[in-house]
Write a structure and sequence with these properties.
The protein is mainly beta. It has 4 helices and 12 strands, in the order βαββββαβββαβββαβ. Strands 1-3-4-5-6-7-8-11-12 form a 9-stranded mixed β-barrel. A hairpin with a 4-residue loop joins strand 4 and strand 5.
Length: 236
């Protein structure tokens, strides 16, 4: 089960708040993404299928420990592409394939300190009533840098979310590589308040640029107004 947090984070490495979170998900064959996992980690599956997520949100009050956030640099929009993982100890988590944000300092620190594939981008994430708008383009010397234009409408609250929504969103850690080895960073946050959502516009190649091929519109679209989040120290 993914709903119960495996363990609480004591003194956090990082604290932050994720606001106006939109989850888009496509099913993928586990064999098609197994080579994208760090050593010692395999794709997590639900009814034999794994998933790739495109997740956009507003990062707020990002900072070390319980600092309350770094002014300006700790607040920015982010869009990431992620896969779902489980390791030999049964710890279920996320493997990030890309994380795009407009704060160059955050990109450099996250890449150096946590081995996360952050990319510097031009990203705008706004809410207009019950409609969310994303415009993101990776800063790149390429003629065709990865980009996404997205609009989505927010629907009613899900009561309860259901097993698939729980599998896709109730993730309590991430797997990454640091100093040449695979590590696990636990994540603590309340259960997501989830809503139905619907894609109104989507033109993106972020998922393909992250090494995953998908066809058609996303199968699952969910929204959450947000949660406070704390990251604990990594463990092997």
């Amino acid at each position: 089960m993914t709903r119960a947090t495996p363990r609480r984070v004591g003194f956090p490495l990082l604290s932050q708040y994720w606001r106006n979170v939109l989850f888009l998900h496509w099913p993928v064959n586990p064999r098609a993404v197994a080579h994208l996992m760090p050593p010692g980690v395999v794709p997590d599956v639900w009814n034999g299928t794994s998933w790739v997520g495109l997740v956009a949100f507003g990062m707020e009050r990002l900072g070390p420990g319980r600092s309350g956030g770094v002014p300006w640099c700790g607040t920015f929009p982010e869009v990431n592409v992620r896969l779902y993982s489980v390791d030999g100890q049964g710890r279920r988590g996320v493997v990030f394939r890309s994380l795009d944000c407009p704060r160059l300092a955050a990109v450099l620190v996250a890449r150096a300190a946590f081995g996360l594939p952050y990319r510097w981008s031009r990203t705008h994430w706004t809410a207009d009533g019950d409609v969310l708008h994303l415009a993101s383009r990776v800063r790149s010397p390429s003629r065709h840098p990865a980009a996404c234009v997205l609009a989505a409408g927010i629907g009613p609250r899900l009561q309860p979310p259901g097993p698939l929504a729980d599998f896709l969103t109730a993730r309590w850690g991430l797997h990454t590589q640091a100093l040449g080895r695979t590590v696990y960073l636990p994540v603590e946050h309340p259960q997501w308040p989830l809503h139905e959502a619907a894609v109104l516009q989507l033109d993106q190649d972020l998922v393909r640029s992250a090494g995953v091929e998908v066809d058609g519109p996303p199968t699952s679209v969910l929204f959450s107004p947000g949660v406070p989040v704390r990251f604990g120290p990594w463990t092997p």
